[in-house]
């Protein structure tokens, strides 16, 4: 173990002593994120409050030959913020100011620690919002959204985080500060902004973010459609997409998850249904009327039992509360759960969902499904009790099989949680050695010394000639 | 030839380092962007053709040499389209390499947001894939966005997967003398707003009743004459909030995309300063992806 005293002294000199922590409790807390990835270990945890302080953290880490790992609210589910190789952990939660809101230009500059929902709340009076709305939006930070290119239900029509980030001030891995992208539409050069979004902290640390603001739609209609067969619900999803309706959101809750949610929030979900679709259409009033009618017709043609239209904003909020409380509801069923994230072509939802059921039941696990059906983004959730011997291994094996089944159907590894550590070693299932080498070239161009959040996204050996390196004590 | 072998044949044509300097040629509609080439690199043309269009998926896999017009025609048969601008003869690969968005960017988003997966020929002649075919994907680095606007300097695009959009039920240009910045606030998601300092044009799409209602409320008259930038060959990229100052700025006539910031003018834009760190990143990326400088040598992505 390398000595940390000199590192601590330098960091305390640059920040303040109370914002540079190395007590065992903190090191343990910041060794994890919301994923089930275990075995992370921080050397020191820093809480900078400015770009200059982030820059100081990076420079001091470099000077001591240490890597650094940026961390937002710690809600990540793929281990992207789990510290490997005893890094300096740079927590951005104290950089939580909304710096400016330009209503006419529809741009806000925010610090990375601003909580996603806080931004939309601050914008409400202006009739604007920040479109990406991950289920963790009450807690997750915009810096974390940038790192993971986060999604959410409404990304179906509005696009994921990358479509809503115009410019990013970053501290690069060599300690330089620059701005990637710009507020003008066609900044010169390569789209470094685009490359940075979704790079999971491996290309630098975002310190200020210019986000695009979306006008609130003049009309919204939310429909709850229930089915006695999951296959009908999935076919209905495909039919809605094929009809070119592009709903603002198109979510599915299936099987046991419906009852779990209903018992938790009493949103009026029909507990005897096999699947429930939450469909939202928004826009100008006639389009919304027309689209809602067409969704209803398509649903009935696919054997929907009932189509319930939210009568007012309160009822709409209640229906959404059900969807967004799903993961809290699961806690009532089993003490532990493992939430997966893959994407499959929308036309293959039925077969993959069946396959996921088979995988879980063959291992004696329960699977609950609540997911972004409209963009084929599955979130099978395996609930279990980790105290039962051997069950954790079963959960991991099932998870791997679910990912492979998604890839076999023409899907991808992750829709919005990212690769992190969780899926790093599955990358070769989706990409060839040449593909991974190209991604490693991109990473190395930003970070030639490999100090920015090492051990994430790309498996060891992605770059030709790279020596494999397995962090000590890592357990995924 | 099968789907893969067409790409493999193209990769072989581009070749590895021993293949020397090459430049990908599309429809030559924006071939001068990035400046003159050095020497006479061998010209290569990406294969053409739509590989797969599953309408219910709202995505299309298309080879880079396909013209945007051909793609539009094929998609239109299923009531779909892509947010790629067309000029006479533009190819999909060319449009993406240049990265300029079309006039509908305000409503439809930039070209870069339409690309889900790229397959390109790398410096060593390998076929490389980045991104993925699904509409949502965060598996690894966003290679597609790195390639959009890279002017063919990092690799040669061979095939891409694009997100499609439904063709709107109604699309109509309107014109009037209403102040464009007021329209930007009052209209809900217009597809385009253009302004030459006197006339404001709005392109509205969607349900016909909504289009009519929005136009009526804003005092706009339908027109068959879309604004044209034919006499304004230069493209400026400005912050949308600065466009009000365009009239009388001494740079002559303009046609501005209000809310976006693309401005067409008769005179070229002034060169903008490039931050040293950004230039270093560009140099390193070029070195990493094209160490022998064989792709479009001489073409500059930075001023």
Task: Briefly summarize what is shown.
The complex is a heterodimer of chains A (476) and B (303). Helices cover 34% and strands 20% of the residues of chain A.
Describe the structure using short key phrases.
heterodimer, A: alpha+beta, Uridine Diphospho-n-acetylenolpyruvylglucosamine Reductase, domain 2, Vanillyl-alcohol Oxidase, Chain A, domain 3, 3 domains, seven-stranded antiparallel β-sheet, five-stranded antiparallel β-sheet, 20 strands, 20% strand, disordered C terminus, B: 303 residues, alpha+beta, Uridine Diphospho-n-acetylenolpyruvylglucosamine Reductase, domain 3, globular
Q: How are the elements arranged and paired?
A:
The complex is a heterodimer of chains A (476) and B (303).
Chain A: H1 5-14, E1 20-21, H2 24-29, E2 44-46, H3 51-63, E3 68-71, E4 88-91, E5 98-102, E6 107-110, H4 116-123, E7 128-129, H5 142-148, H6 155-158, E8 165-171, E9 177-181, H7 192-196, E10 205-212, E11 214-215, E12 219-227, H8 230-242, E13 249-254, H9 256-265, E14 275-283, H10 285-301, E15 304-309, H11 313-324, H12 326-330, E16 336-339, E17 342-343, H13 349-362, E18 366-371, E19 377-378, E20 380-384, H14 391-408, H15 427-430, H16 433-446
Parallel strand pairs in A: 2-4, 3-4
Antiparallel strand pairs in A: 1-2, 5-6, 6-10, 7-11, 8-9, 8-10, 12-14, 12-15, 13-14, 13-18, 16-20, 17-19, 18-20
Helix pairs in contact in A: 1-3, 8-10, 9-11, 13-14
Chain B: H1 3-14, E1 22-24, E2 42-44, E3 50-54, E4 59-63, H2 68-76, E5 80-81, H3 92-98, H4 105-108, E6 115-121, E7 127-131, H5 143-147, E8 156-163, E9 165-166, E10 170-176, H6 180-186, E11 192-195, E12 200-206, H7 208-218, E13 221-222, E14 234-237, E15 254-257, E16 262-265, H8 276-289
Parallel strand pairs in B: 1-2
Antiparallel strand pairs in B: 3-4, 4-8, 5-9, 6-7, 6-8, 10-12, 10-13, 11-12, 11-15, 14-16, 15-16
């Amino acid at each position: 173990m390398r000595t940390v005293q000199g590192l601590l002294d330098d960091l305390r000199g640059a920040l303040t002593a109370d914002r540079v922590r190395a007590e065992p409790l903190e090191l343990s807390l910041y060794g994890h994120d919301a994923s089930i990835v275990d075995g992370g270990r921080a050397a020191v945890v820093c809480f900078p409050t400015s770009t200059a302080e982030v820059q100081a953290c990076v420079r001091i880490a470099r000077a001591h030959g240490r890597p650094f790992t940026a961390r937002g609210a710690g809600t990540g589910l793929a281990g992207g913020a789990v510290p490997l190789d005893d890094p300096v952990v740079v927590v951005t939660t104290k950089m939580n100011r909304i710096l400016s809101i330009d209503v006419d230009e529809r741009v806000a500059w925010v610090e990375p620690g601003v909580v996603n929902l806080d931004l939309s709340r601050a914008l409400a009076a202006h009739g604007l919002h920040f479109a990406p709305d991950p289920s963790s939006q009450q807690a997750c930070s915009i810096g974390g959204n940038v790192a993971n290119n986060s999604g959410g239900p409404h990304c179906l029509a509005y696009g994921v985080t990358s479509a809503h980030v115009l410019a990013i001030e970053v501290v690069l891995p060599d300690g330089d500060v620059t701005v990637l992208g710009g507020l003008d539409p066609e900044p010169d050069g390569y789209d470094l902004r685009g490359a940075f979004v979704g790079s999971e902290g491996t290309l630098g640390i975002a310190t200020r973010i210019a986000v695009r603001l979306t006008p609130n739609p003049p009309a919204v209609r939310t429909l709850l459609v229930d089915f006695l067969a999951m296959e009908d619900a999935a076919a209905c999803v495909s039919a809605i997409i094929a009809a070119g309706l592009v709903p603002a959101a198109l979510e599915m809750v299936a099987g046991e998850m419906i009852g779990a949610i209903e018992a938790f929030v009493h949103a009026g979900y029909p507990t005897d249904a096999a699947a429930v679709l939450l469909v939202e259409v928004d826009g100008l009033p006639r389009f919304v009327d027309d689209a809602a009618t067409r969704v209803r017709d398509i649903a009935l043609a696919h054997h929907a039992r009932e189509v319930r239209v939210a009568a007012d904003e309160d009822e709409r909020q209640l229906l959404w509360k059900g969807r967004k409380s799903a993961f809290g509801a699961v806690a009532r069923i089993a003490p532990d759960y493992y939430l997966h994230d893959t994407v499959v072509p929308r036309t293959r939802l039925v077969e993959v969902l069946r396959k996921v059921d088979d995988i879980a039941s063959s291992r004696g696990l329960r699977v609950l499904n609540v997911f972004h059906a409209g963009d084929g983004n599955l979130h099978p959730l395996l609930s279990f009790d980790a105290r039962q011997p051997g069950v954790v291994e079963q959960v991991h094996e099932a998870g791997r099989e679910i990912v492979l089944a998604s890839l076999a159907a023409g899907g991808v590894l992750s829709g919005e949680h990212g690769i992190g550590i969780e899926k790093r070693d599955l990358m070769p299932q989706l990409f060839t050695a040449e593909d991974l080498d190209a991604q490693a070239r991109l990473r190395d161009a930003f970070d030639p010394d490999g100090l920015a959040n090492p051990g994430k996204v790309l498996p060891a050996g992605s770059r030709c000639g790279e020596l494999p390196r397995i962090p000590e004590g890592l357990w995924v | 030839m099968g789907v893969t072998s067409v790409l493999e044949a193209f990769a072989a044509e581009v070749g590895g380092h021993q293949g020397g300097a090459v430049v990908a040629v599309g429809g030559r509609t924006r071939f001068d962007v990035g400046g003159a080439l050095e020497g006479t690199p061998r010209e290569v043309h990406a294969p053409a053709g739509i590989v797969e269009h599953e309408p219910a998926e709202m995505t299309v896999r298309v080879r880079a040499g396909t013209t945007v017009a051909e793609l539009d025609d094929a998609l239109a048969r299923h009531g779909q389209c892509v947010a790629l601008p067309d000029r006479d003869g533009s190819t999909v690969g060319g449009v993406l390499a240049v990265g300029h968005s079309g006039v509908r960017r305000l409503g439809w988003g930039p070209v870069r947001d339409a690309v889900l997966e790229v397959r390109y020929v790398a410096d060593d002649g390998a076929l490389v894939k980045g991104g993925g075919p699904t509409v949502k994907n965060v598996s690894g680095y966003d290679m597609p966005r790195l390639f959009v606007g890279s002017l063919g300097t990092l690799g040669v695009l061979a095939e891409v997967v694009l997100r499609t959009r439904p063709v709107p039920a109604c699309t109509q240009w309107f014109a009037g003398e209403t102040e464009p910045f007021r329209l930007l606030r009052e209209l809900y998601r217009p597809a385009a707003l253009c302004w030459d300092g006197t006339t404001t044009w709005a392109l509205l799409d969607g349900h016909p009743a909504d289009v009519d209602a929005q136009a009526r409320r804003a005092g706009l008259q339908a027109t068959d004459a879309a604004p044209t930038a034919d006499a304004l060959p230069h493209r400026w990229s400005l912050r949308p909030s600065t466009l009000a100052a365009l009239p009388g700025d001494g740079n002559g006539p303009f046609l501005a995309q209000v809310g976006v910031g693309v401005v067409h003018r008769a005179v070229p834009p002034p060169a903008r300063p490039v931050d040293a760190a950004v230039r270093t990143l560009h140099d390193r990326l070029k070195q990493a992806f094209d160490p022998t400088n064989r792709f479009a040598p001489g073409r500059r992505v930075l001023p």
